[in-house]
Amino acid sequence: MFLWNKFSVFHNWRGVVVLKAWSGRFQKDNEALMDDFHSSIGFDCRLAEEDIQGSIAHANMLGDCNIIKRSEADSIVIGLKRILEKVKAGQIEWDIKAEDIHMNIEKLLIQEIGDLGKKLHTARSRNDQVALDTRLYIRKETANIQSLLKNLLELLLEIAQREQETILPGYTHMQRAQPVVLGHHLLAYFEMFKRDFERTHDCLKRVAVLPLGAGALAGTGFAIDRSQVAAELSLQRVMPNSLDAVSDRDFVAEVIFGISLTMMHLSRFCEELVLWSSMEFGFVEMDDAYSTGSSIMPQKKNPDVAELIRGKTGRVYGDLMAILTILKGLPLAYNKDMQEDKEALFDGIDTVKGCLTIFTPMLRTVTFKRERMLAATKDGFLNATDLADYLVAKGLPFRSAHMLVGRLVQSCIEQHRRLEELSLEEFQAASTLIEADVYEALDIRQVVSVRNSYGGTSVEQVKFQLEQAVEWLNTIK
């Protein structure tokens, strides 16, 4: 996940002088500092495969439409495939003076097949070309992200099935509130990452469209067949407006927004693991393989992976704000500002992939301390709501029941006692509606069991949620 510095120095091919694609209009060369500042090859070189893929489809279309000879198109395609092999083998040295990935590939093609390579750029601009490359890149990386999300979803389901009867405190405002099943808690994260998976899939409808053929901004006078190019690249439709085709980066912002939500979900999960692994909670123990120690305190075991993921979430948020800020004031159509979308996009994708890649195996090794979790439900009056519900079932209005139980809780706090430790006489002194069956209603396992409404935390409902989750997961296999 190494992102090249855009100010890195690149070697020229064998000392050959490289002319700018636009140099005919100019009477002198750019300053070397300008080349460094202006060039994007330091980071957009990772679009090489997509650039060649799009160029092959474009060359085939030019040949089939008789814009260039079919034999010329075939020679161009052969040359591009040779370059692709060299790219995959790591045999290419990118040239900063050729500015970007598009001109680097074109220069390589001219070296490979001669001046015939100069015909490839017929009926297209770098404006529509880079828009296509970016879309193809996102489509590829979306599949990678979905694969990582699927691995995490499968693991969450596996752990939730194993822990479907493990009881722990549920929290609101970071205060113990009501007992829940650990499987239910984990399935909440399953739902979050499920939405992330669905969101990436939905986003593809707006990513996987063809901008090529829009030219610089106004289309082209050549009789091209954009639908043919779309079909060869497995894109479902063609962008209908040439201005929008070259200036649209909504899909970049949308992808980074989706990634940001995934990072937020990872961060929330990591925050709980950090808390739960503390001595104050003691609900989990992180595996040694995903923890670190202290250089000064020998006893320490730190959840650094979870903390780093939590920290990297802010980094991806920064990528999102960067692209939104870049786009907010741009007039139609293409502007050089849009070159700045790549590094934010690449960084966001690299970061979420890296975090998902390490989070899943880390979670697999977490040890859940079931006895500690259950013991934590004994304190904090997690059954207070059930005492109120008990009274409501006996005919007392809820607000009155709430007030009565609140007073009992206050009395217990003052006496350092639990509700279930009160005698029947003490309960009946508070309300004659309370009978001996109150102790069954206050039992923590019963408190969980009665939460049997749809989506609730009862074991029965959790089993149903697990069945639904398995059914959904099978649809994406």
The counted number of beta strands is 6
Beta-strand percentage range = under 5%
Mean pLDDT over the full residue set = 94
**Known CATH architecture of the largest domain:** Up-down Bundle
Major β-sheet, in short? 2 strands, antiparallel
How many independent structural domains? 3
Overall spatial form? elongated
* CATH C-level label of the largest domain: Mainly Alpha
Low-confidence stretches: 1-18
Total of helices: 19
- Enumerate the strands of the largest sheet in spatial order, edge to edge or round the barrel: 1-2
Q: Please state the CA-atom Rg, rounded to the nearest Å.
A: 31 Å
User: Which fold does the CATH topology of the largest domain refer to?
Assistant: Fumarase C, Chain A, domain 2
- The CATH homologous superfamily name of the largest domain equals Fumarase/aspartase (Central domain)
Which structural class best describes the helix and strand composition?
A: mainly alpha
Measured as a percent range, the helix fraction is: 55-70%
**N→C terminal distance:** 27 Å
List the helices and strands in order. Answer: HHHHHHEEHEHEHHEHHEHHHHHHH
In a nutshell, what does this entry contain?
This protein is mainly alpha-helical. The protein contains 19 helices and 6 strands.
